[in-house]
Amino acid sequence: MVVAPGEPALAATDPYRVLGVSPAASAAEIKAAYRALVKQHHPDAGGDHRTILELNAAWEVLRNSERRSRIEHTSGTTTTHQRVKEPGKSAAAPTATATEQDLLAWLQLVVAPSDRLLAQVINAFPAQLKALAADPYDDALMEAFCRFLEASQARLAKVEALYRSRSCPVGVESFSLALYHCLSLVKDAIADLERYTLGYVDSYLRDARELLRQAKARRSQLLVDSRQLRR
């Protein structure tokens, strides 16, 4: 399961060091290292969200060939858009008003539309599955179900684009990670449903239903948490 590749508000001193790869590592090696570390340090596996954010920051740099090229030719640079603060020095704290405005804008422009798109996939699934269950081997029913999966993938791609469109405001990193985890659960479920349509293997269908059950529960908690953040 891939965890949030957006730009978290946490700088990495050396993205190669964070991911444990050399500057000569291939794109495939970097991706494999990132995935392995995310699984190892994910909060669901006993890790912490700050480590995940550091991994995400390193991945966001090294996954982009242009950014990677810049850091390889620039000594002392962290990422192209973030710097590590020197010991004893701190940036001026944002005003309460500015912080509140950033949070409200993020909730309105990222969280709210993401929730609507996720709901369109999660809430539509039971009816779609019920229709297919009438006869999974009926070509017309299967074609309709596959169209649902294609539409779901398009919606999930929009959610991922929204997530990457704005940086997570300081102080709500855990909420941001939970949002992406919800997205990841739905993406994994849709992938399992696609596998089911190819071979009618019931285990894929069972796994997908469980993943969507978890996603629905997580989305419900996110709605509660987002209302609290707006207060």
Description of the structure:
- With 231 residues, the protein is mostly helical.
- The protein folds into two domains: 1-89, Helix Hairpins, CATH 1.10.287; 96-230, Four Helix Bundle (Hemerythrin (Met), subunit A).
- Helix content is 70%, strand content 0%.
- The protein has nine helices and no strands.
- Helix 2 packs antiparallel against helix 3, helix 5 (96-122) runs parallel beside helix 8 and helix 8 runs antiparallel to helix 9.
- The relative contact order is 0.12.
The arrangement of helices and strands along the chain is HHHHHHHHH
- Specify the CATH architecture of the largest domain: Up-down Bundle
Low-confidence stretches: 1-12, 75-96
Mean pLDDT: 82
Q: Which structural class do you get from the secondary structure elements?
A: mainly alpha
The residue fraction in helices comes out at 55-70%
Please indicate the percent range of residues in DSSP E strands (runs of 2 or more).
Answer: under 5%
- Describe the sheet with the most strands: none
Please compute the radius of gyration using only Cα atoms: 20 Å
Overall geometric form = globular
Give the quaternary arrangement of the chains: single chain
Number of helices: 9
At the third CATH level, what is the topology name of the largest domain? Answer: Four Helix Bundle (Hemerythrin (Met), subunit A)
CATH top level assignment of the largest domain: Mainly Alpha
Q: Give the number of DSSP strands.
A: 0
Distance between the termini: 32 Å
User: How many distinct domains?
Assistant: 2
